[in-house]
Each structure stands twice: as C-alpha cells, then as structure tokens.
Design brief:
Shape: rod-shaped
Order of helices and strands: EEEHHHEHEEEHH
Strand order of the largest sheet: 1-4-2-3
Number of helices: 6
Number of domains: 2
Low-confidence stretches: 215-219
C-alpha cells in the first residue's frame, strides 16, 4: 500500500546566488524547490527515509503573475514541467499571485528582489505486507528435484538443508528463480522480506541476478 502527503510553502527574499543580470524589471523569477521523501515500511522494520531534491526556475511577466485568474491556462502551461497535479497548482497560484502583488506594492522595490520561492514537499510511505512477498513467491516456477540430474543443487543455499527428491507438496515446496537456482519456498519468502528490510534489490542469494524479470514482477 502507498500513502502520499503533500505540503508547500511560498516565500520571497533576495537570493545573492542569482546573478543580477538574470533579472528583468517586468518579470518575476519563480523558483520551485521540489523535495521528495520516500519511507518504506515492513511489518518488522521502519526504514530511514531517502530524500531527493530538484530545483526548477521560470521567468514570468509581472502582469501575468499578478492577474493570475485571467492567465490560469498560461501559467499551467508554463509550470507544466513541475511534478505536481493541476489541482495542487490551482491552490498554489493564488498565493504566488498575491506574493507578487505584495512585492510590487513596496515602494523602491529593487529588481533583484523579484524572486518567489515555492518549496514543495512530497512524502510517500510504502507499506510492504507479507501478502506482497507471497505474491512475489507465486511468480516463481515450482520445481522438484530429480535424483538422476547430477547438475542440480542438492541443498537450499539459504537454509543449507538438502532438498528431498521427488517431493512437490506445499510443506517443502521448491521454487526456481529466473537464474535457474533452486530454493525452498519458505526460505525465499524470508529472503524477500530481508531484501525489503535492507532496501536492497530482490536478487538471487547465490549469483545476485534478478530473481525474476522486472516485467513479470510489475504485472
């Protein structure tokens, strides 16, 4: 299950890192700062979050920004590359417009003050349940050991117990990975959970190849 929350704040201040000649008297510089936090949760572990950030800047004419209600379509097109929904942008535009009007209303406003920072925060929590791991296991091929086959593994590399020849019931089910290695079904289930706890790929315990094709897992 996935849960996403969204928040934002807008402020205006002089940014000395932006060169003076990058400003125009009749434009505002709108700087979007997008921060995305991913938190993965299993039944046994809450992971440290991973965070990524991205910045994107736009020059928008002052009259369009201050009269945002009459220019909504234009502003949606201008900010179309920002990774937010149109509904969220509709909430943000009035605040950007009012901020622009406030800046212009100050007497003696310098052009290098015409920057508006839109800080966007998205937090996604992914809850991984045992049923998800069971679905992954069900994608694997069921197999049984032929005692006449000298090339097949004799034991599960996870629990180090020997496979029982010719048995294919649910108690000791054996599964074959995409790389043709064999494991007990219950062992590979625990391996999936361990991979999730460590936020590592679902790779084979023996050769580190993908346990199953990505396209198959995404179905």
């Amino acid at each position: 299950m996935e849960f996403t929350s969204f928040s934002w704040e807008i402020n205006s201040k002089e940014d000395p890192s932006i060169p003076q000649d990058s400003y125009f008297d009749d434009c505002f510089s709108i700087i979007f700062r997008f921060t995305k936090e991913l938190i993965q949760i299993t039944q046994s572990t809450n992971f440290p979050s991973t965070t990524s950030t991205a910045n994107e800047s736009f020059l928008v004419p002052s009259d369009i920004l201050c009269n945002f209600r009459e220019n909504t379509a234009f502003l949606h097109e201008t900010f179309s590359s920002v990774p937010i929904s149109p509904e969220i942008l509709d909430q943000i535009l009035p605040v950007i417009g009012e901020t622009a009007r406030t800046i212009l209303s100050h007497e003696g406003c310098d052009s290098n003050m015409r920057s508006i920072f839109v800080n966007l925060y998205v937090t996604t929590r992914i809850v991984i349940e045992d049923s998800d791991f069971s679905q992954f296991v069900n994608l694997l091929e069921r197999s049984k050991i032929d005692e006449q086959d000298d090339d097949v593994e004799e034991q599960c590399a996870i629990c180090l117990e020997e496979f029982e020849h010719g048995i294919e019931d649910s108690r000791v089910a054996i599964v074959r990975t995409n790389c043709s290695h064999l494991f007990h079904e219950c062992c590979i289930f625990r391996w999936f959970r361990r991979c999730a706890d460590r936020q590592s790929p679902y790779s084979c315990p023996l050769c580190r190849c993908n346990i199953f094709p990505t396209s198959q897992r995404d179905e």
